[in-house]
Amino acid sequence: MTWTAPELQPTRTLVGADERPMLQSWLDFHRQTLLGKCGGLDGEQLATRSVEPSSLSLLGLVRHLTDVERGWFRTSAAGEEIEPVYGTEAEPDADFDDVAALPADEVFAAFHAEVAACDAAVAALSLDHVFHVPWRSDDYTLRWVYLHMIEEYARHNGHADLLRERIDGVTGSF
Predict the structure, then answer these.
(1) Is residue 114 within 8 Å of 70, Cβ to Cβ?
(2) What is the b/e burial string over 54-91, where b = at least 16 CB atoms within 10 angstroms of the residue's CB?
(3) DSSP 3-state helix, strand, coil percentages of the chain (rounded to 5)?
(4) CA separation, residue 82 to residues 18, 76, 104, 129 (Å)
(5) Max CA pair span of the chain
(6) Measured distance CA(4)–CA(97) in Å, rounded
């Protein structure tokens, strides 16, 4: 089965907009970009590894970002006591490993559900909301999380560009 990406919405120019809508717009743009890089591929193609010994794949990136979203927005910023979707203490890289174990449609459904849950979890929090991350021994703000997530997606979207080109030669924006 081939996965169909959503239509990529152009990023609106938010010059002069408030900071929160600007940050949310850029995060949403990068979320959509990742999904666009996965569009039109079947499960086997989505699970294709970059090069040995790397376990990097498009499906692994979607799984990884599902866990990263959950970890920063829901577990850290919102203080929810929930486990990662894929990673475990015993297998911290499970998001990239064994990507063929779940059908791609289930991975994308989990991603969409997590994004919606993350957005809802922090909707009422101020960008200045401060929280402590014990595994990092530091305090962070929600503003920092938005900036970090935009950076995280931008970096991994670069990986997705290369992976997609390796799979079927497709390059460019989606």
Answers:
(1) yes
(2) eebbbbbbbbbbbbbbbbbbbbbbbeeeeebbbbeeee
(3) 55, 5, 40
(4) 31, 10, 23, 20
(5) 46
(6) 23
CA dihedral 31, 171, 55, 117 (to 10 degrees): 10
φ, ψ of residue 119 in degrees (nearest 5): -60, -40
pLDDT per position as a tens digit, 44-61: 999 999 888 889 999 999
- 39 within 8 A of 32, measured Cβ to Cβ: no
Distance between first and last Cα of the chain: 20
pLDDT string in tens for the chain (174-residue length): 555 555 555 555 566 678 999 999 999 999 999 999 999 999 999 999 988 888 999 999 999 999 999 999 999 999 999 999 998 888 888 889 888 778 999 999 999 999 999 999 999 999 999 999 978 888 999 999 999 999 999 999 999 999 999 999 988 766
Partners of 141 in beta bridges: 130
- In the chain, the domains with their CATH numbers are 40-168 (1.20.120.450)
User: d(Cα 115, Cα 113) in Å, to the nearest integer?
Assistant: 6
Q: Where in the chain does DSSP place strands (E)?
A: 2-3, 41-42, 130-133, 138-141
Amino acid at 112: H
